[in-house]
Specification:
Elements: E1 3-7, H1 13-24, E2 27-33, H2 37-49, E3 53-58, H3 64-78, E4 83-86, H4 101-129, E5 133-137, H5 150-171, E6 177-182, H6 188-191, H7 195-204, H8 213-223, E7 235-238
The structure holds NADPH dihydro-nicotinamide-adenine-dinucleotide phosphate (NDP).
NADPH dihydro-nicotinamide-adenine-dinucleotide phosphate is lined by residues 8-15, 32-36, 39, 59-62, 87-90, 110-111, 137, 139, 182, 184-185, 187-190.
Length: 244
Amino acid sequence: MKGKAIVTGGSRGIGASIVETLALEGWEVTFNYCSKRDLADQLIEKIQEKGGTAHTFQADVTDFESSAQFVTKAREAMGGVDALVNNAGITRDKSLFIMQPEDWNNVINTNLTGYFNITRQLVAYFFKNKKGRIVNITSVSGLVGIAGQTNYCAAKAGIIGFTRALAKEGAKLGIPVNCIAPGYIDTEMTSAIPEKHIQEIKAMIPMKRMGTTQEVADLTSFLLSEKAGYITGQVLTIDGGLTA
Ligand code: NDP
């Protein structure tokens, strides 16, 4: 057993790849779904068929109590936690002049406050044990401005600040805290982008393709490994050269 990991938003997309990759590498993994229970159950089945161990529970990361209950259930199911991957996120893209307060609040509450709500349940435990690793999935939208994403860019930049500050709090206890900033990755989130715009995006990316969820999962696995033990407070960008 490599360790016990919690992954948020593991039912599909990048989170599902992270869950599967860690579980097949020998981690015991607990992940949440928000609404897609069927996808979460299918993932558990797939992992079990391949000999891995995973658990899933419903949780809404925008809600502090729901987050607390999820982390408690995960700790009970696995008998401990060694690593956390904050991944659950949403987009509600539109120009600021038509953005509604609910577009702003939903994105900030899921992508930024959600990371606080989950991490807050585990830091005291990690710090007390002087053991634990945290990976926060941010985005290149946290590094550069993207029109139509004032809410998302603000949340993703916020995650970077959150990560750097927490890395300083955890460093003397040997707890690495890092961010991964993916560029355009082929998931349901990006399938909302019109095909014509996808072609323009691909033309803009130096590697001329979107990234895969597996590529993000492999980087997450590396950051959770002993090999990455001296990396903390950093943003690792994985974007095919987009921000190079
Ligand atoms: P998807 O839309 O494919 O999946 C989102 C996941 O988050 C689902 O598991 C969903 O659960 C869960 N989720 C959504 N809202 C909540 C909530 N309130 N509480 C708990 N869980 C929730 O997203 P991606 O895989 O594309 O993105 C994953 C992360 O990567 C996000 O943080 C995103 O911002 C980031 N990212 C994505 C990029 C991309 O190109 N796709 C690029 C850069 C960053 P359910 O299925 O039950 O609804």
